[in-house]
Amino acid sequence: MPATSPKAVRRQLAAIAIPTLGQLIAEPLYVMADTAFVGSISDIALAGLSVGSTLVLTSVGLCLFLAYSTTSRVSQLMGAKRTREGLKAGVAGVWLAAIIGIVLTAALVLLAQPLSLALGARGAVLDAAVIYVQTASLGITGTLISYAANGMFRGLGKAGITLWSAVASALTNVVLDAWFIFGFGWGVMGSGVATAIAQWVMCFILLAYLGPVLRRNSVSVRPDLHGVLASAENGVMLFVRTAAVRVGMVATVMAATALGTSVLASYQAVNSSWNLALNILDAIGVGGQALVGVALGAGDMHRARMLVREIERAGIVWGAYVGLGFAAFGWFGAGLFTTQAATAQLIAVSMVVVALFFPYHGWLWALDGVLIGAGDFSYLARACVLAASVHVAALALAWWTLSATGASPLMSVVTLWLVFNLVFMGIRGMGNILRAHGDVWMAAALASSRRTEV
Description:
- By secondary structure, the protein is an all-alpha fold.
- The protein contains 17 helices and no strands.
- It is a multi-pass membrane protein.
């Protein structure tokens, strides 16, 4: 029986969130390690990495629904005591991930240059961006399969496996980064190749663990077209939600690119660190997805309500802790990302500004997890589209004002981060808070639970 006391719920949340953190930070760790190594080459190389990694992270981030929808569906079926059906749904998600990964990799390799041009890269910055995209994207299929497999492990309550696969992957990336960039002298290309190999290492580890689980439950690994299509349909609204989030992030990169190399280089350093830190909070949200999904699958609405309170409390508290660490790291560690004193100052100040918003980020991400676990995908898609639309308009106004007034690089980069946090994250957070504390999402949860019935 599920534990019902707040203390027991916190233990259950930690049992999922801590291992999940390992998998969630894998991709940001790749980029953060790449940023630190490439930043020692030149600001031009770092700016190229910023554009290239934005394309890769955006492409991968658009497919987060593979993990989120799988977690939600598998956990609800587990809550309803339908383990074999949950595993079959997970296998369908893995096949969908493989198909999407192959198509996405081919598209990025072929379109690396025009996409980098669209983000504003030119000259040597463009060359570096294209090289990174064409090499790092070779590991995307492995990453997407890992997302779907991790969704299965979370729904099964076996999230610990995701931690070990991510640790092995991150260590592989760091070692190969140093070897390829400095040992072989490959520069940005070495960074991309190291990232691609590390992504496949994580994938193979997870599949090796998943095989015995499927065999014990007599679940075939052969592709089932009906199941793959059902998995795709289940993730459409989550894809729209994630696409809107990425539009907001890419728009910020485009504005930073237009404001100069130093602004873009500092933005890359802060953004890679922010993505890494934010995944600590996202891990709480993912834990919430699994716990809420199980409660709703079992029809236990009282427990679901209690989970909301505990999950959002954990998000706020950990947001404060992460914010303090983020500010300290930015103030004292900015020099790790660049050899230019002026760029280091931009990084340090920006990270302190961003750190102020982390408790709010924790609240937002925690409730995101609750609503995803409930299957409230349509609401999340609408809310993120609204937030991204307003953010792009506010960003355009900020860019025009900064350009017209000849603002300093410091004023420019701080303004970009303030607009992002106050407008984009502000709208998303307030929407999640109002939604999760109302009753409509419960109706959406019941509808989602009924859709899992055969």
